[in-house]
Amino acid sequence: MTYAVGDTLPPFTIESVSPEAMKQWAVFLADPNPIHLDAEVVKAKGLGDRVINQGPINVAYMMNMLMRAFPGGRIAAMDSRFLDNVYGGDRATVTGKVAAVEGGAVTCEFVLEIEGRGMVNSGTATIET
Amino acid sequence: MSDLDDLPPAPPAAGTSLDGTAVFTISAEENAALCRSTGIEPAADGTAHPIYYYIATQVAMGKTVAGVCEACEFDVDDGPMMGSSGVRFDAPLQVGESYKVTGEILSLVRKRSRKLGVMDVLTYRLRLHVLDGTQVLETDNVWVLPRKEFAA
Lengths: 129, 152
Hints:
The complex is a heterodimer of chains A (129) and B (152).
Chain A: E1 8-14, H1 19-28, H2 39-44, H3 55-69, E2 74-82, E3 92-102, E4 105-114, E5 118-128
Antiparallel strand pairs in A: 1-3, 2-5, 3-4, 4-5
Chain B: E1 24-25, H1 28-37, H2 52-60, H3 65-71, E2 81-89, E3 98-113, E4 117-130, E5 135-146
Antiparallel strand pairs in B: 1-3, 2-5, 3-4, 4-5
């Protein structure tokens, strides 16, 4: 697939962020922080009323959008900023566009947005195609 | 006069080694479970999900998350928050490959934020290597450590 500067990338959507996946990621990350596992802890800390997605899962969603947009490509570099929490049950969508094309490298800008709340992550990446 | 002049400086954490001794191996079973937990199928070409840049470096670095916080004189129960994460890959991560980690804390800077009050901004760098020492990626992560003890 060939892209030009300004082209939008196909979005990637998670219909409902999964608390079960957070339990899996607590093991993957060897980090049993209870804000990802127990909504009562989240409430007690005044952070909301649902479990909070681990930040790296949000990065994985953004990577998934890029990998689907560039089949056979390789993420060479990526920077992500964390602006707000993603909660269990959220509908999360990654959208992006092409910012630059140079040789076989495509630079993209993207955001992760939550339905009803807006942007929670943003980033840039360079894909080697 | 700085608005931080009435506060003690951030602890001298810069330079703390995060070199690990553990070996992290990306298993096919875990990679498949991880991919599916994020809404995609694992790649058929033997490459692992690139988010293993974060997982492998965190799990195999020389300190736990709580240990990194402790080096910053911060209680992990006070809630460190991810600020940003960057990665530069030299090669794709591979299922079945084993990796080790080197790294260090780059800086710990005390700031005052309208939203969070006093906070320390931690920046650390980790590198992932295959076992012969060849580097496959470098990542810089920034965490925000809210210093509730300095709340007005």
